[in-house]
Known about the structure:
Blueprint: E1 19-21, E2 33-43, E3 60-68, E4 74-76, E5 78-80, H1 82-86, H2 97-113, H3 115-120, E6 122-125, H4 133-138, E7 143-147, H5 150-158, E8 163-165, H6 170-180, E9 183-189, H7 198-208, E10 209-220, H8 222-227, E11 240-241, H9 244-253, E12 256-264, E13 270-277, H10 286-298, H11 303-309, H12 313-329, E14 334-337, H13 341-349, E15 359-361, E16 370-371, E17 378-380, H14 384-387, E18 392-395, H15 401-407, H16 409-413, E19 417-420, E20 426-428
Parallel strand pairs: 6-7, 6-9, 7-8, 9-10, 14-15, 14-18, 15-17, 18-19
Antiparallel strand pairs: 1-5, 2-3, 3-4, 4-11, 10-13, 12-13, 16-17, 19-20
Amino acid sequence: MRSQNDLNSPLRHIAPRFVKKRATCMVCGDKKLTPFLFLGKTAVANSFLTKRDLLKRELKVPLTVYYCHACHLIQLLDIVDRKLLFEKYAYFCSASTPLLRHFQNYAEELLKRFPAQAKKLTVEIASNDGILLKPLKERGARVLGVDPARNVVQIARRKGIPTIADFFSAKLARKILRKYGKAGLIVANNVLAHTDTLHDIIAGVKELLDEKGVFVFEVQYAIDLLDSNEFDNTYHEHICYFSLFPLTYLLKKHGLEIFDVKRVDTQGGSIRVFASHSPLRFPVKKSLSLLRLLEHKKGMDRLATYRKFAKRPPLVKHMLNQLLQTLKKHGKKIAGYGAPAKGNTLLQYCSIGPGLIDYIIDTTPVKQNKFTPGTHIPIVHPSMLKKSTPDYILLLAWNYADAIIQKEEWFSKQGGKFIIPVPKPAIHPVTTRKLRHSGQRKKKSSKKTK
């Protein structure tokens, strides 16, 4: 494994064989795919740059989203090799306080609903730094993590979480089966959307899962993506965007069936899905039929729905640029808060660079003292907020807006304001005096002065 300084260096001078263009749907294999969202060519969202890297040419790959007419999956077709994306990973779940709370509650739910399965063996696919397995283990579950990012795996192991450094597959599932036996619980959070090997993964789940076992996973929900205009959640790591339509097809293909689903507020809006072997040993919850009805009502099985959605990102681009440019013309200092993948998509699509954003703070050490991919904005330690306090903060990690605004209450008390970019740019707290855009004439008062 490379040294910590080499982690997440930008992908550049990459041979074409590391970027492939699919011609068929990731789930059903159909060829009738229509592009509807065009975000340009962008650098890979987590390929942060060092100063030396700034002199080199970055790899940029088309970021275009397609709709499958057969199973209704929304997906990318320009696929970057997963080893380049994930074997040197910059995302550590435990660095996020809201995520820590989320996974603590998640662990409690799993142990309450499926205690026997959890204690038999809980395998988590893409377990990251052990954020879910740690509280499960502390409460008596037998756990095993699987994650391809060796730097992240080292951290999980230091926490006492046994973790295999590899991509989960049917082949690996058979190795786990021989060594550990069947799994009562298999968990996969925010991973099914990040892979182009869906069928291999689900085949592995089918083989490893105990006959009374439960497969639980979270994916970002396509309804929330559209309703909240979350176009910035599109990036090359995030290949698929799910509704129940393609998920039902995918699981059924491998003899698995959904029996429960619930909406959760992570990643800008997700669903937690509960599945098991078909025929089901578990009662089917009413929540499943209700959500399916909602998907029909929202038109998640119609191309027109997605084409309508695609008209909104250009409006955000125009409004956000106009706002930031006006603030800079009035001498305001602007900082970014968080350097998540979604933030790098937003910055690149909106062409926002260091001329508009002075710096970005992030709590993740491997991102600090680097530069954002594609836009080259410096990323610094959070202490910079108080050393060089801006007038405005652009919330790139907008999905944690409430928690961030509460945490940085001191900033608001000093008169600082937050800019929340989606679903459309808004200032918090709302400003009562609007800044005039360049070239806008000041209106004369209709009242005569005495």
